[in-house]
Write the structure tokens for this entry.
Amino acid sequence: MSTATLLLCFEDELTLARKLADAAGLTLATVDRHVFPDGEIKLRLPTPLPPRVVLLRSLHDPNAKLVELLLTARTARELGAEHLTLVAPYLAYMRQDVAFQLGEAVSQRIIGSHLADLFDAVITVDPHLHRISSLKEAVPATQALALTAAPLLGDFVHSQCPDALLIGPDEESEQWITAAARQHHFDHGVCRKTRHGDRQVEITLPDVAVTGRAVVLLDDIASSGHTLAQTARLLLRSGARSVDVAVTHALFSGDALQVVREAGVGQIWSTDSVTHESNSVSIAPLVAAALQQF
Ligand code: R5P
């Protein structure tokens, strides 16, 4: 990406945007956003726009942001942007990837195609893709790139707790556990999880000795917090010395932070893919390197 590329962001993501602009050598500008009393929004983009524009928008609380993306992308094209990249560090609607019951919308496919219609390239971090192997299958843009923050989280965990036992709360976390454990040779294991509802999960611990160990639970997303909380309770009951948590996407919806803390979790660390008080690791260098490849 040349310095002529413009990085656009919204006011609420300026902290990450500034780090990304610095790391990637991009010029930064914000999209002005006005919310009318009835909830409609009016956006204003800076002008003139260069031919290459990158929009940073993490898609937690996704519904209103999907309208923002539609308005921003279409306006950017009208203002002359020829190549549009979406950097959505957290990519929403990736979990509903099949119709579990007749009549259900397959949100991953619908939202993925919508984004591919708007953007030439889409970059995200640790998307929840478990029944497909590449982001492009879900988001058929010309370029679709899924990065992983697991090695960054692994480095951070090592700096805080070099003898950590890394535990993933479900089978899907194995990929992140393996990536994070690799560099620092952490002992590790992965639980089995059965989900009975939005806030009801059943966890089975792996056959790994946890007595006296400082455990770090590593996962992609903390949403309701019940996956982490239930796993932490079982680990502490089984004799773990401490349980800390490291996640890529700190959604922590509603009372999730309290749920996790009440389960006995000590430290809670996350990347800045979603702005949150637990942010400890920046994904900016990772995303900047990917943008430079483009
Ligand atoms: C699902 O498999 C993900 O990897 C997370 O474990 C899940 O989204 C966490 O959700 P919650 O915090 O609501 O239990």
